[in-house]
């Protein structure tokens, strides 16, 4: 929640409403803000606004990826992820850092980048206390502790903890070189 005082404006999709001591803000918060995400994933406890969103989210845990990028054949659990991913191919970067002018494909990526300027690392490993800029970086790091290797090669039995390692490995199957010699 944002900091809540005795007279705070809270914006929902409807017009702003102000509250004062006659109607405590905490009651409003309990009745509307908290209940905006009443549905919860029983696996990771992430909360959602609708049961349908939970159902879509569960594809992540099940490893279901029914949506494909027709350019690189990458597979995704949600249609919106494909749309976001396609910006990698088009080079479309609508979000610009006002500090260093780097551009990004999404507001989330820009937000993560801004943490590099501020030094903020809000995600900390419960096991070794190492801090991270983004939740996805923490999730990837946790695999070093758990030994989880969710990325499987479909051509051999090898598994990897990081997707980038699987991609590099698959290039070996196709004969594609991972590094090009600057001299040759």
From TrEMBL:
Its main location: nucleus. One of its GO terms (cellular component) is nucleus. Residues 17-27 have a biased composition (Basic and acidic residues). It is found in: Nucleus. GO terms for molecular function: DNA binding; DNA-binding transcription factor activity, RNA polymerase II-specific; protein-macromolecule adaptor activity; zinc ion binding. Residues 39-66, 67-94, 95-122, 123-150, 151-178 form the C2H2-type domain. Residues 1-27 are annotated as: Disordered. Residues 1-13 have a biased composition (Polar residues). Keywords: DNA-binding, Metal-binding, Nucleus, Repeat, Zinc, Zinc-finger. Pfam families: zf-C2H2 (PF00096), zf-C2H2_4 (PF13894). It comes from the Eukaryota. Belongs to the krueppel C2H2-type zinc-finger protein family. PANTHER family: ZINC FINGER PROTEIN, ZINC FINGER PROTEIN 271-LIKE. This is Zinc finger protein 468-like. It comes from Diabrotica virgifera virgifera. The gene is LOC114348595.
């Amino acid at each position: 929640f944002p900091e809540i005082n005795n007279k705070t404006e809270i914006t929902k999709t409807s017009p702003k409403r102000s509250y004062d001591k006659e109607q405590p803000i905490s009651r409003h918060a309990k009745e509307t803000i908290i209940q905006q995400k009443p549905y919860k994933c029983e696996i990771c406890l992430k909360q959602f606004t609708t049961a349908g969103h939970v159902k879509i989210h569960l594809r992540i845990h099940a490893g279901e990826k029914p949506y494909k990028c027709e350019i690189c054949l990458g597979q995704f659990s949600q249609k919106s992820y494909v749309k976001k991913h396609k910006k990698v191919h088009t080079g479309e970067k609508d979000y610009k850092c006002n500090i260093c002018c780097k551009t990004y494909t999404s507001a989330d990526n820009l937000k993560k980048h801004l943490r590099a300027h501020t030094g903020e690392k809000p995600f900390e490993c419960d096991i070794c206390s190492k801090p991270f800029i983004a939740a996805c970086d923490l999730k990837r790091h946790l695999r070093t502790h758990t030994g989880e290797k969710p990325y499987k090669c479909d051509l051999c039995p090898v598994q990897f903890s990081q997707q980038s390692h699987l991609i590099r490995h698959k290039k070996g199957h196709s004969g594609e070189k991972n590094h090009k010699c600057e001299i040759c």
